[in-house]
Amino acid sequence: MKTRRRDRNHRGGKRLGFTLVEALVTILMLSIGLAGIMGAVNLGIRYSGEGAELTQGIFLAQEIRERTLNMDFTDVAALDGVTYQPPINSHGVPILGMGGWSQTITTSYRSESDPSATLASGTSDLVYVQVQTARQGDVALTTGWLVARKE
Asked: How far apart (Å, rounded) are the C-alpha atoms in residues 117 and 115?
């Protein structure tokens, strides 16, 4: 009597392992999942970079604000149209390593009873200082504050 050699892939009529189609479907599903994950990681990196740029812009605007706190009122008003490139710190010293960044200052006299109302130059004891920080010409932040004449 001949003994029958059993197939290694079958045990008791049950199949073991994967077919080629099953393997391809699995690979396809994993590829789609990995592509989605990579897209999410890429988006996260992009938004992280934008956040870092905004933080840098805020820092540069704060430097100008600190500078205006220690200036006379007439000197603050005279900053209208001034651009610092490279940007400066609160002491007026250029900040090294900030190539491509700039700080642009605009000032306007405002009504003391309604600070949203713009007045002619020199007609008020209140000035609105607006600072725009930019990197390579792309605006990172625009912010402003009011400065009052000290008596």
From this structure: 5
DSSP state, 42?
H
Instruction: Please state, in angstroms and as integers, the Cα–Cα distance from residue 52 to each residue in 4, 12, 29, 48, 105, following that order.
Output: 72, 63, 35, 6, 22
Helix H or strand E segment including 111 = none
* The two structure tokens encoding residue 79: 């900053």
Q: What is the DSSP letter of 74?
A: H
Q: What is the model's pTM?
A: 0.70
Which parts of the chain sit beneath pLDDT 70? 1-15, 48-49
Q: How far is CA 48 from the centre of its chain?
A: 7
Q: H helices of the chain, where?
A: 20-69, 73-77
Q: Could you tell me which residues come within 8 angstroms of residue 149 by beta carbon, excluding any fewer than 6 positions away?
A: 73, 125, 126
Which amino acid, residue 109? Answer: Y
- Give residue-wise pLDDT tens across range 19-29: 888 889 999 99
